[in-house]
TrEMBL record:
Cellular component, GO, one term: mitochondrion
InterPro entries: aa-tRNA-synth_II/BPL/LPL (IPR045864)
Lineage per the UniProt record: Eukaryota, Metazoa, Chordata, Craniata, Vertebrata
Entry protein name: Uncharacterized protein
GO molecular function, one term: RNA binding
Source organism per UniProt: Oncorhynchus mykiss
Gene Ontology biological-process annotations: histidyl-tRNA aminoacylation; mitochondrial translation
Length: 195
């Protein structure tokens, strides 16, 4: 079969996600066997050279300090779904790590902590809420067959109805200021923090 014919057959198969051919194709994709080499190399560079015992011991202290400050401001920890349906419009200019679930649906790992939370707020008609979250976010690697790069992201969100008041903004800035005061390393001149 020529490449153009194969491309046409694949397009036809992909167009009918409820069809038997589509289910067969997805089953075949998920029936692949992972070689021992691929198994070993998939995460080989994930933590290479990055592990530091002192950092690992310090992380619970940092986490505890930050969460104590968030709780003091009345924020609640809220985890949103890990996977979201792929939507290119949400991440214009950035490409999230994309996966396929067992049914063939394309889903993304979190690129940031905002999108899933914004969906949660909109779908539940939430008008007043303070939440905090410290979770992993992911960036795709340029290499094929490599684990996405993992980053730890911290989020503090204040949801209020549309208002002219600057109190929610002021509280957010004050909360960040409290966190900076707790960690002398963040008090360095010319150190910028994004809000």
């Amino acid at each position: 079969m020529e490449e153009s014919e194969l491309h046409e057959v694949l397009q036809h198969t992909m167009a009918n996600v409820n069809g038997k051919a589509y289910r067969t194709m997805v089953n075949q994709l998920f029936s692949q066997i992972t070689s021992p080499v691929m198994d070993y190399t998939y995460v080989i560079d994930l933590h290479k050279g990055n592990f530091n015992f002192n950092s690992a011991r310090l992380q619970p202290y940092v986490y505890g300090t930050i969460t104590r400050i968030f709780k003091k401001h009345g924020a609640v920890r809220l985890q949103t779904p890990l996977l979201l349906p792929r939507n290119r419009k949400l991440y214009e200019g950035s490409e999230p790590s994309c996966l396929m679930d067992h049914s063939g649906m394309l889903v993304t790992l979190p690129y940031d902590l905002r999108i899933a939370f914004a969906r949660f707020v909109a779908r539940n008609n939430i008008t007043h809420f303070k939440r905090w979250s410290i979770e992993r976010v992911f960036r795709p690697r340029k290499l094929d067959r490599a684990h996405p790069r993992e980053l730890l992201e911290c989020s503090f969100d204040v949801i209020v109805p549309v208002t002219n008041s600057l109190l929610p903004d002021a509280e957010t800035i004050f909360t960040i200021s409290e966190i900076i005061q707790e960690f002398s390393v963040l008090q360095v001149p010319h150190c910028y923090h994004s809000v």
